[in-house]
Amino acid sequence: MGPGMLSAAVNHAMTGPFDYSLFGLHIRSELRLPELLEVENSSHPQVTIRLGQAPDAPTNGPGLHLTEGGLLLMIPAVGRYFVKDGSEIIVEPHPGVPDANLRLFLLGSAMGALLHQRGLLPLHANAVEVGDRAFAFMGESGAGKSTLAAWFNDRGFRVVADDVCVVGFADNGQPQVCPGIGRLRLWREVLDVTGRDVAAYQRSFFGADAPDKYDVPLSQPSATDAAIPLAAVYLLERSEALQIERLTGVAAAEAVFANTYRGALVPMTGSSEDHWSASVQLVRNTPIFRAGRRWGLGDMAEQFAGLLEHAEQVPRP
User: Fold this and answer.
1) pLDDT number for residue 44
2) What pTM value is reported for the model?
3) Which of 67, 216, 239, 313 is the Cys-Cys partner for 184 at CB 3.0 to 4.6 Å?
4) CATH number 3.30.420.10 given to 121-182+218-312
5) Quick check: 81 and 54 in contact, CB under 8 A?
6) Distance between CA atoms of 277 and 300, rounded to whole angstroms?
7) In the chain, which segments carry CATH 3.90.228.20?
8) Which pLDDT tens digit goes with each residue over 49-60?
9) Average pLDDT value over all residues in the chain
């Protein structure tokens, strides 16, 4: 690590280490991660995040590279992240990188690689708690997952996970959601339509071509790291009207495969068997629905209310 890298590392380290809970894992980090739930320290954290020098990559191109001992994520003008054994992430910041930019990829693609290394099932989904059950809403980027979560949050429902929803299983095989990152990432137009003042929030990413997205912290007075039973999963798709239908068998499994967070990493991490097993267990024990709805913000209140009504009527196992 050169002098510039060392200086950047010192700036980002602040006064760590810090202890957090994320996706059911105890994480000890040299970087302050204000989006996460702080917990008491432990002598045996499951994941460590530290500043250091990442190994060389087979090529100099950006993206994820399979290297000896792990995966290397390279993001120009942000940094390099070495993900090892599902238990460690080494962060090498680019000099002068804003903290928000460094955390964006750390808690995104780098953490996704670690989850796959551990054989877990991360869905590209948001999850909300209705009653004492969690409901996950998955879909491609732009499907309205975070907008839907903001709608639920504004009506007093707890948002359990934003963008990445990790599914685990209780001893009896019941799928459950492990709480994720305590913030929403919303487009500026969504802030406007939901009555939020853009001046109150920080951009998710800083740069000349950065998307007009903002981090909206979620209040955590009742936050917990306890897993919540997963009652149903909805696949959000485009439709002329709200249409909800149950997916079964191969169609349900394909929906889970297609909406696995950073699914391309499954073969790279050697977790194909674990991913298949967890996906099948999820489909067998949890209803998967296709939810077609009109795109756009004008009809969102009516459409989202219909989804809530449907969720409340999902039978208990």
Assistant:
1) 87
2) 0.90
3) 216
4) no
5) yes
6) 35
7) 121-182+218-312
8) 999 999 987 777
9) 89
